[in-house]
Structure formats: structure tokens, C-alpha cells
# Entry
Amino acid sequence: VFNYDRPKACCRLIFVRAHIRPEPVPRGRFYYYRTEAAHPLTILGIDPGIATVGYGVISAEGGRYRALEYGAIITKAHTLLEHRLRDIFDDVTQIIRRHRPDCMAIEELFFNSNRKTAVDVCQGRGVILLAAAKENVDIYEYTPLQIKQSVVGYGRAEKQQIMYMTRLILKLDEAPKPDDTADALACAICHGNNMMHRAPAAR
# Structure
């Protein structure tokens, strides 16, 4: 993973593409790795947040999955909320324009406590949905239970189990990190699995 954080930037985007080691291509305030063109069926998975937004772009064909790009958008703490939201919107938009996914699968939110955090994360999720809508990308939503059941086979699976199965399914050299990235890839795989059995309605 190549990390690039320009001084005074409010946000940095960290990601990798699987099985390659090319030179990083500069683009704005972050770097990314470019590979061959994506398969026609491309799914963008998102684990929403405000401090960290996990994402993963995969191709799907006949139950086989391949990672095209994955990583995390990380916003700096003690930064104005509107600036963090702006940077999340901008970076998600760039990811969408880079891959032109057929659809976006996003995890539904679930909170036990801390209303302030919940409100901020909901706003972060809102700008992600807006970015997809503005780029005419169909949106599908899945609960954590649905994602774990689809990818691991057990609705109460632990983080390590999700990371292990994600690495196994996508044939990655190592488990995707941070956890938010693994969750985003798992969300994309969940949607791919559902597409094989039925056609869930887009939002």
C-alpha cells in the first residue's frame, strides 16, 4: 500500500490493486495504482464512516471474483465536519469515475451508543450516496448480518473471519486492511452472491 499525505490536506486516500507492483500514478492529493480495464460487471463496495471510509472495487463473473482496487479514505481528526464531508464526496466520486461501476453496495448503519458519532457517520454516508446518485450508479444496501452470512456463512462472524474469507475469495496475497476495507470488499462480494440467486431492488 502506498500512503501519500500532502501537508495540510484534510483527507488522504489509501488503496492498492491486487497482484501488481507498478509505479504509483499521482492524482490530486493521493496516489493510486492503475491496472487493466475492469470486467463489464463491476461492483463498488462501501463501508461508510466519517473518520475512515472503506471501499473495494471488484469484478464478478459466474461466481468468481477479482479485486480491482481497494483501500480507505481517511479524514483527519479535528477538521471541520463540512471539509471532511467534502473530501469524502470528492474521493468517492473519483473512484466511481475511475472504474465506472455497474452498481454500489453499501453497508447499512447500526449503532449501540454515542449519538454524536452516529449523526456524523450518517452524514458521511449521505454524501457517499449523493456521489453515487450524481454519477448514476445503482445503490444496494445490506445489513452487517446479511454480509457476514453471505461471505462467511455465519451472521455473527468476527472481524478476523471476514478478513480471512475476503482474502480467500479474492485470492489476495494478504488480508485487506484496515478492517473497514475488508468490510467494504465483503459488502461487494455479498452483492455479487445475491446477484447470482436473485435481483434485489436498487434504491
